[in-house]
C-alpha cells in the first residue's frame, strides 16, 4: 500500500503561516478600528462645522458689520486686516507686544524719496490699534510758525461714515504723544481727539502707534503719509493704501468682532480649532484649541510609538499656507465658498506620524454663501483613546505568538529526537572497523525522516552484501593462485630429488622467486583496494592544525627512537578533504622518512601557508635524491632503496601519496636539504572555499 507523504516542509510552513496570521490579523483590526475612529472624528468635525455655519449664517452681522461688504467686489487696494489682541496694548510708540503680528509693507519705486510704509493692526474691545513704521531718511516735523494748518511730514487717516468720507490728520512738532485733527468737515458726535497715540523717532524714519475707536471707522480705513522736503517749495509725495485725490470709499477694515468671538465660544472643545472666513477668504474669526483633556490615560511611550508607526501615512500633504497673512487657503475653504462641504487630512507640522483632520462647511444667509467655517483637530485626540485597547491587543498577540513558539519548539524537539535516534542507530550498526553488524531499524513514518531511515536501511543492506563479497574475495583469489604455486613447488621438489650439479642454486632461486611472487600479489591487492577507497571518500571541511597535532603525538609514541618535531606557523588551516586519507599519506611519508634515517635523527612535520593554500611537509636527515629520481619518485613501481631485505617494496607508497594529493586538488613535490643533508616531501592543498 502506497504511503501518504506529508513532508516536514509542509508541516513547518503550515505552522508558520498560522503564527504569521496573528500579527497580520492584529494589524488589520487596528487599521479597521483606526478607520472607524477617523470616520467618526470626521463626522463629528463636519457636524461641528455645519453647526457653527448655521449659527453664523443666521446673523450675518457677525461677519459683516456692514452688509455692503457681502456684495462688494474684491478691492485691488490693500485692505487693513486686524487681529484680535490677546493682551493689553500699551500705546507708547514702540513695537513691544507686536512681534507676532503680521506686517504689511507698502512702497512705490516711482517716488523721488526712498519712502516705505509698513503697518500692523489689532483690535481690543471697541478700539483699533495701528502701528505704522515709516522709512524716511529726512523727517520734517510740523512748524507752527509757518502756519496753523499741519505742515511737514504727517499722516492722513480716511474713514467712511453714513456714506461720507471722513479724514483726520496727525502731525507733530516733535516726537511724543499726538492727537488727530479733522482734515475736513466732520459729523456730529465725533471727537478727532479720541484718535490718539505716540510718535517716536526710529532709525531711518519714525514710528506711529495709534488707538482709534472702531465706531469712527465705519468698517473702512484708508491712510497715507505725506512726505515733504526741507524746502517749502520742494516736492510733496504720498504713500499709502489710498491716494489724496480719491473720492470713493476707502478699503474695508477687516477684523474679528467681539460678537463673533462670543458666538464661537460655546463650540470650544478639546483640541479643536475653529476658523471663520468671509467670501474673500479673510479670517474674520478664530477660536484657538482649548487645553487637552487630562482625563485621557497616558500610554507607555514605546507602545504609543509602535501604534503610531503602524498607522503612519507618509503620503499625506502638509497643511496649506496662505500666501497673504490674514487669509485662509486650501481646498477646504475653496470648496466651502463654492458651496461644497468636505473633510480633509494632512500631515501635522513637525511630525511624521501625527495627522491633522479638518472639516469645512459653507456659511449661507438667505441661500447665498457669505463665508466658510473650517474646524481642525489633531488625530491624536481620538487615537489616544485606543492606546489601552492596542496595549491589550498587543498583549494577547504576544501571548498567542509565545504559545505558538512553544508549540514549534516542542515540534522541533520531537524532530530532533527522531534524528538523534536515527544517528544512534547508524552508529550501532557500523562497527569501528567499518563492518556492518546487526540490522538497521527502518522507520514506518510517512515523512522525510522516515523515508531517510528506509533509505539508510536499504543502503546498509547493500553495503553488507558488498563487504561479504570483499571478505570472500581474498579466499577466492588465494584458491585461484594456489594451484599454479603448487605446480611450481612440485616441480622444484622433483628437481631436488635428481641430485644434479648446481641444482641447489636453482632451487633456492626458484623458492626466492616464489616467495617474492607471493608478496608482490599481496602488495598489488593492497594498492588496488587503496585506489578504490580514495575515490569513494567524500570531502568535508577539515582543519589541518589539530589533525597534525594529533598525529604528531601518535608518531612520537610509535617511533620513540627518532626525534620527531612539529612546526606550525598558523592557528587555523582549513581545506576540503578526508582526514583518513591525509593521515594515510602522512603514514606513508613517515614510514619512508624512518626508512632513510638513522635512529636518533630528527624528523620534522611542518605546516604553513603558501601560494594561496597550505603546505604540509615531512623532512628527514639522510640520503639525498638524485635529480632524475626527484622527478619520478611519485610514479608507481619506483623505489630508491638499496636493499629491500625480506620486505617487498614496489614503489607504491609515494604513488599513493600523489593519488591522495590529486584527489584533494593538490600536488606533492620533493626537494633536498643542504645542511644537514636530507629530503623534504611537500604536500600542497588549496584553501577551503565552502563546506562540501
UniProtKB/TrEMBL annotation:
Keywords: Kinase, Membrane, Phosphoprotein, Transferase, Transmembrane, Transmembrane helix, Two-component regulatory system. Residues 413-468 form the HAMP domain. It is an enzyme of class 2 (transferase). It is found in: Membrane. It comes from the Bacteria. Pfam families: HATPase_c, HisKA. It catalyses: ATP + protein L-histidine = ADP + protein N-phospho-L-histidine. InterPro entries: HAMP_dom, HATPase_C_sf, HATPase_dom, His_kinase_dom, HisK_dim/P_dom, HisK_dim/P_sf, TCS_sensor_his_kinase. One of its GO terms (molecular function) is phosphorelay sensor kinase activity. This is histidine kinase. SMART domains: HAMP, HATPase_c, HisKA. Its EC number is 2.7.13.3.
Amino acid at each position: 500500500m502506497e504511503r501518504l507523504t506529508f513532508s516536514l516542509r509542509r508541516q513547518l510552513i503550515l505552522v508558520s503561516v498560522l503564527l504569521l496570521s496573528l500579527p497580520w490579523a492584529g494589524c488589520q483590526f487596528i487599521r479597521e478600528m483606526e478607520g472607524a475612529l477617523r470616520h467618526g472624528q470626521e463626522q463629528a468635525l463636519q457636524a461641528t462645522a455645519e453647526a457653527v455655519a448655521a449659527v453664523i449664517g443666521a446673523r450675518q452681522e457677525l461677519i459683516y458689520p456692514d452688509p455692503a461688504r457681502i456684495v462688494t467686489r474684491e478691492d485691488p487696494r490693500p485692505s487693513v486686516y486686524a487681529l484680535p489682541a490677546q493682551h493689553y496694548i500699551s500705546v507708547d510708540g514702540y513695537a513691544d507686544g507686536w512681534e507676532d503680528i503680521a506686517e504689511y509693507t507698502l512702497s512705490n519705486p516711482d517716488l523721488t524719496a526712498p519712502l516705505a510704509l509698513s503697518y500692523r493692526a489689532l483690535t481690543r474691545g471697541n478700539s483699533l490699534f495701528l502701528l505704522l513704521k515709516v522709512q524716511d531718511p529726512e523727517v520734517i516735523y510740523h512748524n507752527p510758525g509757518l502756519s496753523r494748518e499741519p505742515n511737514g511730514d504727517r499722516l492722513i487717516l480716511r474713514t467712511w461714515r453714513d456714506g461720507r468720507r471722513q479724514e483726520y490728520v496727525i502731525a507733530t512738532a516733535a516726537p511724543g504723544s499726538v492727537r488727530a485733527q479733522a482734515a475736513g468737515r466732520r459729523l456730529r458726535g465725533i471727537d478727532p481727539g479720541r484718535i490718539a497715540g505716540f510718535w517716536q523717532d526710529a532709525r531711518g524714519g519714525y514710528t506711529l502707534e495709534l488707538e482709534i475707536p472702531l465706531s469712527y471707522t465705519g468698517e473702512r480705513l484708508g491712510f497715507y503719509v505725506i512726505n515733504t522736503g526741507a524746502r517749502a517749495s520742494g516736492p510733496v509725495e504720498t504713500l499709502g493704501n489710498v491716494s489724496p485725490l480719491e473720492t470713493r470709499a476707502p478699503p474695508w477694515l477687516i477684523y474679528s468682532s467681539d460678537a463673533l468671538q462670543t458666538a464661537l465660544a460655546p463650540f470650544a472643545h478639546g483640541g479643536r480649532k475653529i476658523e471663520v472666513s468671509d467670501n474673500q477668504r479673510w479670517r474674520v474669526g478664530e477660536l484657538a484649541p482649548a487645553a487637552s483633556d487630562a482625563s485621557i490615560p497616558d500610554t507607555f511611550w514605546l507602545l504609543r510609538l509602535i501604534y503610531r508607526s503602524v498607522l503612519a501615512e507618509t503620503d499625506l500633504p502638509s497643511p496649506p499656507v496662505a500666501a497673504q497673512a490674514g487669509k485662509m487657503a486650501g481646498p477646504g475653504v475653496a470648496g466651502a465658498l463654492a458651496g461644497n462641504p468636505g473633510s480633509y487630512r494632512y500631515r501635522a507640522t513637525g511630525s511624521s506620524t501625527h495627522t491633522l483632520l479638518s472639516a469645512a462647511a459653507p456659511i449661507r444667509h438667505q441661500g447665498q454663501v457669505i463665508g466658510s467655517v473650517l474646524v481642525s483637530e489633531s488625530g491624536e485626540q481620538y487615537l489616544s483613546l485606543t492606546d489601552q485597547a492596542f496595549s491589550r491587543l498587543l498583549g494577547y498577540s504576544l501571548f498567542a505568538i509565545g504559545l505558538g513558539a512553544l508549540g514549534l519548539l516542542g515540534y522541533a524537539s520531537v524532530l530532533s529526537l527522531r534524528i538523534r535516534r536515527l544517528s544512534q542507530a547508524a552508529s550501532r550498526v557500523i562497527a569501528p572497523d567499518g563492518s556492518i553488524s546487526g540490522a538497521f531499524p527502518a522507520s514506518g513514518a510517512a515523512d522525510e525522516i522516515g523515508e531517510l531511515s528506509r533509505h539508510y536501511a536499504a543502503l546498509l543492506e547493500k553495503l553488507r552484501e558488498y563487504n561479504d563479497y570483499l571478505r570472500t574475495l581474498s579466499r577466492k583469489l588465494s584458491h585461484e593462485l594456489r594451484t599454479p604455486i603448487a605446480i611450481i613447488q612440485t616441480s622444484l621438489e622433483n628437481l631436488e630429488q635428481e641430485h644434479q650439479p648446481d641444482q641447489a642454486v636453482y632451487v633456492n632461486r626458484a623458492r626466492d622467486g616464489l616467495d617474492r611472487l607471493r608478496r608482490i600479489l599481496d602488495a598489488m591487492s593492497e594498492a588496488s583496494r587503496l585506489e578504490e577507497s580514495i575515490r569513494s571518500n567524500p570531502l568535508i571541511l577539515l582543519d589541518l592544525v589539530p589533525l597534525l597535532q594529533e598525529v604528531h603525538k601518535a608518531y612520537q609514541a610509535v617511533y620513540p627512537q627518532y626525534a620527531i618535531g612539529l612546526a606550525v606557523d598558523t592557528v587555523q588551516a582549513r581545506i576540503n578533504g578526508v582526514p583518513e586519507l591525509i593521515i594515510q599519506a602522512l603514514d606513508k611519508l613517515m614510514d619512508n622518512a624512518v626508512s632513510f634515517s638513522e635512529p636518533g635523527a630528527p624528523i620534522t612535520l611542518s605546516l604553513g601557508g603558501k601560494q594561496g593554500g597550505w603546505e604540509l611537509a615531512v623532512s628527514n636527515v639522510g640520503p639525498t635524491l638524485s635529480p632524475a629520481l626527484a622527478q619520478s619518485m611519485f610514479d608507481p613501481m619506483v623505489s630508491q632503496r638499496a636493499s629491500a631485505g625480506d620486505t617487498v617494496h614496489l614503489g607504491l607508497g609515494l604513488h599513493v601519496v600523489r593519488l591522495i594529493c590529486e584527489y584533494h586538488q593538490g600536488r606533492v613535490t620533493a626537494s633536498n636539504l643542504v645542511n644537514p643533508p636530507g629530503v623534504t616531501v611537500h604536500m600542497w592543498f588549496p584553501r577551503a572555499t565552502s563546506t562540501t
